[in-house]
Amino acid sequence: MPKLVLTGVGGGIGGIAADYALEIARPDQKFLFTSTDLSKLPVSKVDGWKAKGAEVAEANYDDPESLSKVFKGAEAVAFISTWALGHRPRQAANVIEAAKAAGVNRICYTSFIGAGLGNDSEEARQRDLKTIPFLPRDHVQTERLIRASGLQWNIQRDYLYQDNCAAFFSQSWKFCGDRWLNNTDGRRGAYVAREDCGRVFGALLVGRAPPNTCYTVTGPEAVTDRELFEYMNSVSGYKAEFVDMVDDELAAWWRERGLPDDAINGDFSKLPMKLCIPDLLCCGEMVAQSHMEEVTDAVEKLSGRKPLRYQENFKKYEHLFPRND
Prior knowledge:
Blueprint (H helix, E strand, L loop, with lengths): L2 E4 L5 H13 L5 E6 L7 H9 L3 E4 L5 H8 L4 E5 L7 H14 L4 E7 L9 H4 L8 H15 L3 E7 L3 H6 L11 E4 L11 H13 L6 E5 L7 H12 L4 E4 L2 H10 L20 H12 L9 H6 L6 H4 L12
Parallel strand pairs: 1-2, 1-4, 2-3, 4-5, 5-6, 6-8, 7-9
Helix pairs in contact: 1-8, 3-4, 4-6, 10-11
């Protein structure tokens, strides 16, 4: 019976991927789901997975021994990038090395749009990482490791999440004086629902895609940040201003207020979001440089469902929308 391992089920992508993989699995497939700390997962969620036949265990990308233990006897392993910016390629190397040592045949990975800038041609593979936008850099390195591993692979490159705009960026608007300070230059991006990305990942794990294939995972339409802003405010009644800024201006504004340049060691205790300067700037840069304009059919092709529109996805975040005092 083929054993499929899905790591990171404590996160937003991993938990959805686990549920969907169980929903669409063949009868002869069995699953092992891992998280760094099972005590942080809802007991009902873990019990539900176990009731459907899945094993659940702890494993950590920074602990190769824990990876070797859960990968033993696996046909495929799926792993999700963490928030450890700059350290993620080392974590990926640990996963790949443990997978190869355990005799795994195939590896699946959640990458990010822009990784193709360093991987999709021989010229791209020779490109200096410093010339690639900040956020894709770790993913470029990880994809290179995967392709060089000799394992079969499936990679999905996700666009930025709709969810981040509603539940993350919006939390800074009051701090900014009832303004969204924005550096997308009015360009459009086909933001994707995290829920859809999770289902695609579950589909890749169970083998719905041919080996050695890469998918760009997008939402159903390209929209501007101003459209998202105006929609959220039409729902909440919030009166605020959308302010266009260039990168240097935006960086200076946030740096003056203590936003750090280092995501791992920075102090975010007095700030509305845990997002370092390079990360913040690159979110807008990916849209401004037209990296997110294309709309693909990856969600429907792999999950059988049309991707969620932001209006539908935002319903669960309406309680978080800012409101005037």
